[in-house]
Amino acid sequence: MTQISLLKDKHILLGVTGSIACYKIVDLASKLTQAGAKVDVILTKAAQKFVTPLAFQSVTGRKAYVDLWNEDAHVLHIGLGETADLFVVAPCTADTMAKLAHGRADNLLTITALAARCPMLLAPAMDGGMWDHPATQANLETLQQRGVMFAGPAEGRMASGLKGKGRLVEPIDLVGHIRLAFAKQQPLAGRHVVVTAGGTQEAIDPVRFISNHSSGKQGIAIAQAALDAGACVTLITGPTAAARPTPVGAERINITSTLDLQQATLAACKTADVLVMAAAVADYRTANPAEQKIKRAQMSDLSVQLVENPDITVSVAEQKQALGKPNITIGFAAESQNLLENAQRKLAKKSLDLIVGNDISAKDAGFFVDTNRVILIDKDGKIERLPLQSKVAVAEAVIDWVIEASVTQ
Ligand code: C5P
């Protein structure tokens, strides 16, 4: 998922050091550039053995820097360092980590790191033994105490063929870490947002279930928008959304049935400032799910008895009476007819602060697709019709509403 607004026009200084994982960083530079960031790259000598400055220049459209010892070098490091909003070193070798920990300044990357005043994020890449070495661990501690942020390293197979901790975090996740770094200054910093996403499943037997078409895309986009706004996010997802990656920084809870979802939501809401119920919850569940698979021969006169599920938002409102949390509850109304009237009725019945109504009969909105056309209705009766736009943009609009409501609370 590429979200544009948080990284738009951000000046990211990307230091690249000599690890085979360098080749992945061209992709990172491309992703950041596509998200609207201005990416200036500094390569160490060793990095240039693996990847060329031209590769970075080609994807960023900006000069990639390599040399400390040229005619403008004495001002270059100051200029690059001063204009950066974030200094990312990826991959960061054990050697560069050691130099940064000790304040060495023997190449353009390390001298710029000393001159820079912006936050720094390192993504280490090295063999497991090197990462575990007490010297590297001591450098890690020194840098962390100084406020340097770390992305990874991840566990898994390394270029040497060994397995362990030391792999570079994948570029898509590095983008998530970079967003988290920028999100620290955003208006929902320190707030807890719970988001539910995807459809629930109600078992008929161990093989079959009743569910719906919800993909979880809209809910996951809301979780990402809340993270971008600085919030601490709990993302509770049904099985239809389970295959989708967790936005970096979110706590993920996977559930199956509506009763599971109710339990997880009520628990998470005890500390939540905001609940966004984007999940498509099954209104009914099977009364007596079979313990063994129902055979075809038994099916000719099969009828499945259903019982009503609890309304989770109503139980959240009841819990709120006792605990005072969450401060804001947002629901969704997926309707195939009379969108406005149905959404208004649900807003009142479920004691919501905002309801996001979407017309699922339209081909370009609702289930499966990446776009949505929604109406926002708040508890004071204010109605805002948003145009057809990406689910990411809809998510940002919902979180913008939360930011505004939180400021006035
Ligand atoms: O009543 P309806 O299912 O259409 O309401 C939709 C809204 O209520 C959504 O926000 C959904 O997540 C939530 N919901 C709920 N508990 C249910 C059913 C829906 O909280 N049992």
CATH level 1 name of the largest domain: Alpha Beta
Secondary structure: helix percent: 25-40%
CATH 4th-level superfamily of the largest domain: CoaB-like
Q: Taking strands numbered 1, 2, ... along the chain, how are they ordered across the largest sheet?
A: 13-12-9-14-17-18-20-21
The helix count comes to 14
Compute the gyration radius: what is it?
Answer: 25 Å
The coarse silhouette is elongated
How does the helix and strand content classify structurally? alpha/beta
Which sheet architecture does the biggest sheet show?
Answer: 8 strands, mixed
**First CA to last CA: what distance?**
31 Å
Calculate the mean pLDDT score and round it.
Answer: 91
CATH architecture heading of the largest domain: 3-Layer(aba) Sandwich
Structural overview:
With 409 residues, this protein is an alpha/beta fold. It has 2 domains: 3-183, Rossmann fold; 192-408, CoaB-like (Rossmann fold). Helix content is 36%, strand content 23%. The chain is built from 14 helices and 22 strands. The chain has helices spanning 22-34, 47-50, 53-60, 73-83, 94-102, 108-115, 128-132, 134-145, 171-183, 217-228, 258-269, 312-323, 339-349, 391-408; strands at residues 11-16, 38-43, 64-65, 86-92, 120-124, 149-150, 154-157, 163-167, 192-197, 202-203, 209-210, 232-237, 251-254, 274-277, 284-286, 306-308, 328-335, 354-359, 371-372, 374-378, 383-385, 389-390. Strands 13-12-9-14-17-18-20-21 form an 8-stranded mixed beta sheet, sandwiched between helices. Strands 3-2-1-4-5-6 form a 6-stranded parallel beta sheet, with helices on both faces. Helix 1 (22-34) runs parallel beside helix 3 and helix 4 crosses helix 6 (108-115). The mean pLDDT is 91.
